[in-house]
Amino acid sequence: MTDDRGSQRLVELLTGNSETFVDQWVTVVGESLTGRLSTAEVERELRDLYTAIRAGLATGELSVHADGFAEVRSLLVELSRNRARQGFSPTETAISVFALKQVLEPSLTGSAEDVRAYLQLSRVLDELGLLTVEAYARTREEIISAQADQLLELSTPVVKLWDGVVAVPLVGTLDSARTQVVMERLLQALIDYNSTQAIIDITGVPAVDTQVAQHLLKTVVAARMMGADCVISGIRPQIAQTIVALGIEFGDIPTKSTLADALRHALGTIERDKKLAENRGSLL
């Protein structure tokens, strides 16, 4: 949308007392942020934004999606992302745009031309405010997603219990996404520690249903393809009853009630394989 007369009046309005407007804008926004950002930082952001808005209006465009507002959009996205990372609310972020209305309103003369110009500027600032909130929301979603991934990794540690033995102590629900992480971390640990025995401990898993059992079996199969034997530990009485009632079969996968029993089994398997290798060597 183009309105040369309206845009020209807006540029005149923003240019006439630019320093005063910027100072007042900084004050209003700074107060809304309750001192959690330095005045110098707020002034730098808003001064750059003020200059970009004035330059965008000077092109005669009143649509924030026009090419003339490209720098404004870029500055607002950066501002919104920073506010989201710094923990500010959407309202505190959007006020950085909307406060400019409050600053400019007293400068109006009351003429029809000024009122029209102010209404046009309000529409522009409303669009910029929406853009700010959208950028803020996208950043918050990215932050939450990244935090979820980090928590997922922290909740699936792989530890070395003994030479040749690694364990994955699972806590909480085992779903498809977490199963993938467990597989990746377990397979990498088998390589890193040169392990032939893996223990999957489900003591911290509240319940085992058919889906959870399938996820466990997938993990065991993946480990076996890497040449490692698996033991599932933490089979409590309630879980054992559920497994039987659901008709879930773990086949030839060893299961133990405690992690200690699983470690004893793994060490026994390593010792047995070692003796078999020695006997084969002596026969040769």
Automatic annotation (TrEMBL):
It holds the Pfam family STAS. Keywords: Phosphoprotein. PROSITE patterns: STAS. The keyword Phosphoprotein applies. Residues 155-266 form the STAS domain. This is STAS domain-containing protein.
